[in-house]
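Chapter summary example: a protein plus LGS.
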Amino acid sequence: MGNQTEEELQQLAAVFPAKFVWGAATASYQIEGAAHEDGRGLSIWDRFATIPGKVQRGETGDIATDHYHHMHEDVELMASLGLKAYRFSIAWPRILPEGRGTINTRGLDFYERLVDALLAKGISPFATLYHWDLPVALQDQGGWLERSTAYAFADYAEIVARRLGDRLSGWITQNEPWCAAFLGYGIGVHAPGLEDQQAAITAGHHLLLSHGLAIPRLRAASKAGTPIGITLNLSPIYAADDAAETRQAFENADAFSNRWFLDPLYRGSYPEELFRARGLAHPPIQAGDMEIIATPTDFLGVNYYSRTLVAGGPEQKEPTNKPTLPGAEYTDMGWEIFPQGLTNLLLRLHNEYHVPSLYVTENGAAFKDHLNGDSVVSDPQRLDYLYKHIKAIGKAVAQGAPVHGYFVWSLLDNFEWAEGYSKRFGIVYVDYPTQRRIVKDSGHWYTAFLKAFEQAH
Ligand code: LGS
């Protein structure tokens, strides 16, 4: 397993406050399967995945890890790993098959069973309300290009909160609105597959609006004090060289990758560079929108995987995290492994945006994993990735960043969107033909670290 001694693990664990929450994360479409069961409506990913060429090998989430039918076993697995928290997402089309209107109570029942099973094992449930599976019925009315979708989201949020709000440890409204907007509407690599950068700006605005509109609805229907936040994918920008043009490229990349969503949430405005650099217009902002979007939340969820390198020359128009640097290490996704980027990012959110509370809601890596014999998956690179990133968080905590939790992406190998099942992010291996779960060495290591944490506190 890991090369660290028990003392080293305890030393690292001792850096984190006693109430720090350690968990793992998943998302509905990536793990649940049971796409046509118990009254679930279709989502934009059900449709997108069947378009030839959109997902590697034409794979879909129809079965995925079949978590819908393995839910109790999966909760047992989390307990055996020693997880203290679990971040999952709720499939909107299971609750409202048409996006609004008639409620499918069987959908609510499933998530209630999950939450109760977690609580019975002492695992704190954190629910994400939107991890990209929009009901197709709403997409057919324009999806996130329509303002009314933001209002439909707030209604949906309240419906879920009325059922689960007395038992959750936290709400996450939106997961990575940047990805939903840009990958889904701007370049079409995710559902719904549009390729229109102006549309991405509009979708991003309505995603942010939906978040702001949902906050008071969630608060009113949840037990007092339940923390509410939003999760962003953030990637600190680094200059690849010291050329003069690189400075402007740096600002533009930061506006695009980070400030597009951070500034409206924490400063009440969009960064002008976002529009200027790309020749785009502002989204359709109505009076009061920016105040709604900037409604105070309790925490920010940070998904961190890698940094972004920029160079100013004309040859590189988009920021990238894929150049091949001498000496750098890359994951199976081609993303550079850069733990100190996470330290810097967390400190920036604390110092520049004054975020009151931070959770790392995703962090992890894909590597090529193989089942050895019956029950061993040796994944030293993932183990090392997790260790180094937890250490990087510890550095930020020691310098005052208010980080309160960490969720590994992911509990299980799963449907990695456009990559299908070819990329494995789990700390637990899934043998898809049998749906058998096998804890990888990184999973065993995480358990050892969590034990060290208990001992250190
Ligand atoms: O599985 C997803 C993980 C894997 O890597 C999860 O559903 C998402 O929330 C999250 O986006 N995830 C992820 N992100 C890495 C982002 C790298 C950005 C590269 C952008 C390419 C255009």
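Key point: The chain has a mean pLDDT of 96.
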